[in-house]
């Protein structure tokens, strides 16, 4: 279905209310945008060069990170997971009778977003709605996607004829949170079974909610500048709010201690990043009398390399070394509630099949359709962006 709904040149703020909600519109296709990953040993270093472009990091240092991929055959699971998610979204759209094709593009590996935008334009599409696989608010999870789309539209010369909007950050949408509720409940039962098998029926359990660490400066810049957030960061506040939302929905977890921890730190050791690291947090559990731990990959949509290496390998090894019963809860992946939730987010933005209700399970949501001034600022310099009050792409 091709509506050719956007003329040459457009106002990126047309139809946007004061609270950042965009009026429903007609779209030609959905763009599933993700990080991307290597699909063979020969791809690993070129992929890491893409990820670190402009930072001057030599291949010798990249090879240190490459070991994580090489241990898995040089293949990141993310591309196959995105293929599965794309197929699941197509199935759910078809089930609801929604005639919108799903395109898929990556920031750092094929299929590249730039190529997908050109292909979309060549197919006659003029207005796309983007869904990303990063759900929280910070530079790398939101604004960098907005910039990559803006830069690629300018570089392809499509910035005046192809419009790309974006669904809201959906960290507290029921479709994202409820699969974690199920997963944490199941993992908690499994850890209790492990403890019982070891004769520790009343062993103390702690829940660790883990997410990707980011530089402290980026964390402080996350979210709009005119709102005060817990711990001074929308990124941190959104995670903490989700932790509480999940714990409140699991009666079996009542009274258990939990904490938000971080993983996958990279970059200069002299640059402050969010802490504590998950392995440091695990190391402190025995002194607190903890004998079992549930690890929750709260910052991730699916089992990326950060999940299968940093959690399933390193964190679980730390638990084993300390004699802790442990289980890692699943990511949403293609859970039916997650897939349905993404389609609900799409329907929030469409004229046909519109869903006016905008559910959110924390008091921070629902988040904005159009990012507020200075939201998740790029501390390294401004670039062309889409889907924000400060958007430049599309203006005449």
Automatic annotation (TrEMBL):
Fe(2+) binds at residues 212, 306. Its EC number is 4.99.1.9. Signal peptide: none annotated. Its main location: cytoplasm. Pfam families: Ferrochelatase. GO terms for molecular function: lyase activity. Belongs to the ferrochelatase family. HAMAP family: Ferrochelatase. This is Coproporphyrin III ferrochelatase. It comes from Arthrobacter koreensis. The gene is cpfC.
